[in-house]
Automatic annotation (TrEMBL):
Pfam families hit by this protein: Lactamase_B
Species assigned in the record: Bacteroides xylanisolvens SD CC 1b
InterPro entries from the UniProt entry: Metallo-B-lactamas (IPR001279), RibonucZ/Hydroxyglut_hydro (IPR036866)
Metallo-beta-lactamase domain ranges (all copies): 13-213
Name by which UniProt lists this protein: Beta-lactamase domain protein
Length: 420
C-alpha cells in the first residue's frame, strides 16, 4: 500500500492525500490554497500528474481548501461528496456566475457522485479499497471523516472536525462504536498554532447573541454563508427574542438546502427566514423598524450594507463579527480589505469574534485532538495534516507515546508512506 500526503503536512488548507494499492487508487480532498498562502497553486498539469490512474476523489466537505480544484479533475475520475454538500456547492457557484464564467466548476459538481453516512463504498467495485463516511461537526454543513480499509489495514482520515459544535457530541460515540482502533490516524492540527484562542460552544454563542439582540434593534452579522451551526445559532436567537431573521436571496437558497437535509434531524436546523427583496419599500421598512432584525452578511455585502445603514438608523446598528480574526489584521498576507471596510462602517459598535464570545473555531481544540488519538489508538502512527509548518503534534501531552510521521519517506508494516 502507498500513502502519500501530496500537500497539507506543513500548511493549513490545500490538502491532498493519496491511498493506493497495486490496482486501486483514491485521493481524499483536492483543495486550493487559502488566501495568504505563499506557495504557488497547482497547475492543471500538476493536478493530472497527481491524479494519474486514480479511481476516485473523496471530499470531506465543501470548503475551497478541500474541494477548490475539483474542476481540474479529469472527467473519467469519479468524485464523491455528501448530497447536501453538493447542493450547497451548486448554490455557491450559481451565485458566482454573475462575476464570471464558472461553467467548468458547475459541470464538475453536477457530475459528482454522492455518498451517505455509514454506507461503505467499494471503490470501483474492485474489493481493494473500502471507504465509509461518518458525520463530523465542522463549520461546513454535511462534513465527514472517512474510515478507509485497505489490504487488511484501517486508516482514519478525520478531515476538519470539532467537538464543540451542535452535533459534536456524536464524535466519540461514533469513533467507539463504528471505527474502533486503527492502524493509521490522519488528522488535522489547525488549532495547534492557536492555543491562545478561546474555544466555546455554539450554545454559549447563542446566549451571547440573545443578549445582543435584546440590547440592539438592528444587528448585522458578518459570517460564513454556509456555516450551518452559526446560522442556526443566529436563527434560534431571533426566535427567542422576537427579532426578524433577515436574509438575501442567496442566503435563503442555502438555508433551504440546510432545512431540506438537516431540518428533518433537528428543529434547530429548520429555518424560517424573512427574505429581503427590497429594503426600501414602505411595508418592509415599517416591519423591520418595528420588530428589529439580525441579518447575516458576507464579505461581498458592502454595497447592500451601506444602503441599509442609510435607512435603518433610528437606532444605531451593530455588527457581530463572527469570523476568523486574522482577516482583520492589516498588513498581513491574509488581510481582507472587504472585511476591514465593513467593520469601519460600524466604528466601535462591534461585537468582536472570540473576544466577545460571538465566534468559535470550526476545528478541534488540542484536548479533542488528544482524545481522538487515544480513542482510536493508532497502532502504526499518526500523520498530522492541515496545520502550520511549525506546529507539532508531539508537543501534545498524551500523544507523544504514538509514532508521529514527519516529512520524508518511510516503509513500515507493508506501507510506503511519503509526506511531502
Amino acid at each position: 500500500m502507498n500513502l502519500i500526503i501530496h500537500r497539507g503536512a506543513d500548511q493549513i488548507g490545500g490538502c491532498i492525500t493519496e491511498i493506493s494499492t497495486e490496482n486501486c487508487k483514491i485521493l481524499i480532498d483536492f483543495g486550493s490554497n487559502l488566501p495568504g498562502c505563499k506557495k504557488e497553486e497547482l497547475t492543471e498539469e500538476q493536478v493530472k500528474s497527481i491524479i494519474g490512474n486514480a479511481d476516485a476523489v473523496f471530499y470531506t466537505h465543501y470548503h475551497s481548501d478541500h474541494v477548490g480544484l475539483h474542476h481540474l479533475i479529469p472527467t473519467n475520475v469519479l468524485q464523491y461528496i455528501g448530497v447536501g454538500a453538493k447542493e450547497v456547492m451548486l448554490c455557491k457557484y450559481d451565485a458566482l456566475r454573475v462575476h464570471g464564467d464558472y461553467s467548468k466548476q458547475i459541470e464538475a459538481i453536477e457530475r459528482m457522485e454522492t455518498y451517505c453516512a455509514a454506507k461503505r463504498i467499494d471503490v470501483s467495485k474492485k474489493g481493494k479499497i473500502f471507504v465509509t463516511p461518518y458525520f463530523v461537526s465542522h463549520s461546513a454543513f454535511d462534513a465527514y471523516m472517512f474510515l478507509i480499509e485497505c489490504e487488511g489495514k484501517k486508516i482514519l482520515h478525520t478531515g476538519d472536525f470539532r467537538r464543540h459544535g451542535y452535533i459534536g457530541k456524536g464524535l466519540f460515540p461514533t469513533l467507539k462504536k463504528n471505527v474502533g482502533e486503527v492502524d493509521i490516524l490522519i488528522t488535522e492540527g489547525t488549532m495547534l498554532g492557536r492555543s491562545q484562542e478561546c474555544v466555546i460552544s455554539e450554545s454559549e454563542i447563542q446566549k451571547n447573541i440573545i443578549k445582543a439582540l435584546r440590547e440592539h434593534k438592528y444587528v448585522f452579522a458578518l459570517c460564513s454563508s454556509t456555516d450551518l451551526d452559526r446560522l442556526a445559532t443566529f436563527h434560534a436567537a431571533c426566535k427567542k427574542t422576537g427579532r426578524i431573521f433577515l436574509v438575501d436571496e442567496y442566503q435563503n437558497r442555502v438555508l433551504n438546502v440546510f432545512t431540506k437535509y438537516a431540518g428533518c434531524k433537528s428543529d434547530l436546523f429548520q429555518f424560517n427566514a424573512f427574505k429581503l427583496i427590497n429594503y426600501r419599500t414602505v411595508n418592509v421598512r415599517n416591519k423591520l423598524q418595528k420588530e428589529g432584525f439580525l441579518m447575516p452578511i458576507r464579505m461581498s455585502s458592502g454595497y447592500l450594507l451601506k444602503g441599509m445603514l442609510d435607512i435603518y438608523n433610528d437606532e444605531k446598528p451593530w455588527l457581530i463579527y463572527s469570523m476568523w480574526g486574522g482577516y482583520t489584521k492589516e498588513g498581513k498576507d491574509y488581510t481582507n480589505s472587504d472585511v476591514i471596510n465593513i467593520r469601519n462602517l460600524f466604528g466601535d459598535r462591534i461585537l468582536d469574534g472570540t473576544m466577545d464570545g460571538v465566534h468559535t473555531s470550526g476545528h478541534a481544540d488540542v484536548e479533542t485532538l488528544k482524545e481522538v488519538c487515544q480513542t482510536v489508538h493508532p497502532r502504526i502512527g499518526v500523520i498530522p495534516i492541515h496545520k502550520d509548518e511549525n506546529s507539532r503534534y508531539d508537543s501534545i501531552s498524551g500523544i507523544s507515546s504514538y509514532f508521529i510521521f514527519d516529512e520524508g519517506d518511510v516503509d513500515i508494516h507493508d506501507i510506503h508512506i511519503s509526506i511531502k
